[in-house]
Amino acid sequence: VSDFKEVGETIKKSKRVLLTSHENPDGDAIGSMLGLGLGLESLGKEVFLYNKDGVPSHLEFLPGSDRVRSALDSIPGVFDSTLIVDCTDVGRVGEGFQDELGSGRFGTSIIIDHHQTRKPSADLHLLVPDASATGEIVYFLLRCLSVELTKDVATNLFAAILSDTGSFQYSNTTPQALRVAAELVELGASPAEISQAIYENEPLRKIRLLALSIETLEVAEDGRIASLVVAKDMLDRTGASRADTEGFVNIPRSIKGVEVALVFRQEGDALWKVSLRSKGKVNVASLAENFGGGGHERAAGCTLSGELGDVKRRLYSKIKEALCWKA
Amino acid sequence: VSDFKEVGETIKKSKRVLLTSHENPDGDAIGSMLGLGLGLESLGKEVFLYNKDGVPSHLEFLPGSDRVRSALDSIPGVFDSTLIVDCTDVGRVGEGFQDELGSGRFGTSIIIDHHQTRKPSADLHLLVPDASATGEIVYFLLRCLSVELTKDVATNLFAAILSDTGSFQYSNTTPQALRVAAELVELGASPAEISQAIYENEPLRKIRLLALSIETLEVAEDGRIASLVVAKDMLDRTGASRADTEGFVNIPRSIKGVEVALVFRQEGDALWKVSLRSKGKVNVASLAENFGGGGHERAAGCTLSGELGDVKRRLYSKIKEALCWKA
Fold it and tell me: Are residues B253 and A211, on separate chains, in Cβ contact within 8 Å?
């Protein structure tokens, strides 16, 4: 469903361009949007950047991040094209955006993404599922458009690839992802500065929350299941938000012998959002589907209602079943 | 002080080769030793591997690790050459090794390392300070020797580079380090499997120790200093060892605004080993030198005696002084 040639030509012809990405944006969403935006500006285009939720604080160091607006209303006029990066579903850009897309204001809509999709929803598509990150696609797109890559562009694209490969640790870390990263470092991206900005900028309240949550560490099934709990009163006591629990599941996952790691986050008195991670033996996506959730084979989530002990029992019994069939 | 040509020729002529590295070995020490050893074997050489402390458990997955012996006595005969990797000081190979080196049993001694040194202590030297890891030097050395790199060799060398660049996050992450990593993945190294084996194999007791230690989190100087304490009774209660505190300093370091992170580890009733990490504004090596310690600009250590409160006061006052001169 990709239209490589048309995408390039449509961008070349566009004078006024809007760039956006999915809500609750991550490093790849922001990094690839900013990298592409700065690159297109150097071609003389008038570039506008929009993300419904703005730029998360740990990504504010990225060059150009101050240009991102979180209200579409504040961006006037019509656009020749609208580039939606790292997002196959225009419904995830933000409320109302999808309806407005057809209004003519946004020109030709173009989705640029490395995620697989069966029903792309824009006018044109640049989909490269083999790419480690959307940032990697943007790198090649800018090269195709003969954009000279500056240090600022390189920094954004390196941050995008670093984020989506989990610092080159996930299975999407291809030779090409590493080679593009090498080029970006040559162009001025600093791995140390970018990693520090992204990974060493946690709010203190998050570490205080972790201190409370880590006390709940529990291992079960001969050490093959490990879990943490984040109860509502922990959020209250530390002033932390639900978003601050991101990454907590890496603590139980880091333990030797653990196959499935879980975090139980209390959403209501008897409502629990569960994050699941697998080291490979158990498909946690299909496990989560039993409870109306979903995700990927190694990272999934679902929401269960009931008392914590009961919620655990129901989940653990499914995990035990899955582990039975594995050496 | 490097003798590139002679090193290559001496290795080519050698039939029986001993490989070793520094005590308390890390991923680069073991990975580059195993990668080089397996590579030389494919050239028909008889290869023996020695490390005084053996292979740490999180590196036992590396191909060839079962071949490493921790007693020199168990390896009979004489060697044509002895390759000491990731170690500029033969005194760090293990007690007695240095004295025996001159005995003739070890043949030509060759140091292969990426660390700087002023007084290399072997017969020949292959020192490349620009290399991210000794594993990167071994990659080029094997290429020079026309060794065909197998998946097992690639896995060892990728693990070496991954370890010494902190998963491509430290400032030694050069374009060349990333390009060599790309080649190694092409040759069969799996970033996901290697990262999981190295970073997700923590003993449970270590996480239990972290749970106790993280409660002691303290921030000072407007959030610019953060510290953890590991008291002796925490080790007793969890059955953890001193080595299990490795990486704890990353927790206070991960906090936004923190410039200097510290871990105080109790070595005796009134004796504290201090790990210091800087995000760049403070040179912790010179700071540690005030107390008889040392290290690098961003990672250093020292040992102080006294009550914890007193030890903290002495250190913090020096850090405050250093921070005064920084924006």
Answer: no
Q: What is the pLDDT of residue A96?
A: 80
Q: What mean pLDDT is reported for chain B?
A: 95
Q: What's the pLDDT score for residue B327? A: 57
Please indicate whether, in this complex, the C-beta atoms of B214 and A214 are within 8 angstroms of each other.
yes
> d(Cα A234, Cα A125) in Å, to the nearest integer?
44
Looking at the complex, report in whole angstroms how far the Cα of residue B293 sits from the nearest Cα belonging to chain A: 25
The residues, ordered by sequence, that sit 6+ positions from B317 with a Cβ below 8 Å of its Cβ are none
CA distance B101 to B89: 12
Report the alpha-carbon distance of residue A167 to residue B321 in Å, rounded: 35
Reference B244, options B98, B55, B39, B57; nearest CA is: B57
CB atoms within 10 A of CB A313: 11
CA dist., res. B2 & res. B112, Å (int) = 9
How many whole angstroms separate alpha carbon B55 and alpha carbon B26?
Answer: 9
- CB pairs A-B closer than 8 Å: 139
Closest to B200 in 3D by CA, of B55, B57, B68: B57
CA neighbor of B133 nearest in space, from B169, B93, B94, B173: B173
Among all residues of chain B, which has the CA nearest to that of A176? B182
Helix axes A27-41, A151-164, angle to 10 degrees: 160
Nearest residue on chain A to B215, alpha-carbon basis: A211
**Contact between B302 and B291 (Cβ < 8 Å):** yes
Checking if the pLDDT of A46 tops 90, the result is yes
Pairwise CB contact (< 8 Å): B181 & A185: no
Q: Could you report the per-residue pLDDT of B15-65, keeping only the tens digit for each?
A: 999 999 999 999 999 999 999 999 999 999 999 999 999 999 899 999 999
How many Cβ atoms are within 10 Å of A207's Cβ, its own excluded? 22
Question: A169, B199: Cβ pair inside 8 Å?
Answer: yes
Task: Give the chain A residue nearest B161 (alpha carbons).
Answer: A168
Sign of CA dihedral B65, B71, B72, B74: negative
Coil, helix or strand at residue B68: strand
Cβ–Cβ gap B214/A217 under 8 Å: no
Paired tokens of A149: 């890559």
Shortest distance, CA A87 to any CA of chain B (angstroms): 24
Sorted by sequence, the CB contacts under 8 Å of residue B294 that are 6+ apart come out as B285, B288, B300, B301, B302
Q: Which of B265, B282, B176, B187 has the alpha carbon at shortest distance from B228?
A: B265
Q: Nearest CA to A80 among A113, A56, A104? A: A104
Residue B85 buriedness (CB in 10 A; 0-12 / 13-18 / 19+): buried
Q: Which of A170, A186, A223 is nearest residue B204 as measured by Cβ atoms?
A: A223
Strand A108-113 and strand A81-85: the pairing is parallel
Residues 6+ apart with CB under 8 A from A230: A209, A213, A245, A248, A263, A264, A265, A266
User: What number is the ipTM of this complex?
Assistant: 0.92
Model-wide pTM > 0.90: yes
Residue B77 distance to chain A (closest CA, Å): 38
For A166-182, what is each residue's pLDDT tens digit? 999 999 999 999 999 99
Using alpha carbons, select from A218, A272, A280 the residue that is nearest to residue A245.
A272
> Looking at beta carbons, which residues of chain A come within 8 Å of B190?
171
Distance from CA of A52 to the nearest CA of B (A): 24
**Cα angle B26, B29, B30; round to 5:** 85
Instruction: For A181-209, give the secondary structure using H, E and C.
Output: HHHHHHCCCCHHHHHHHHHCCECHHHHHH
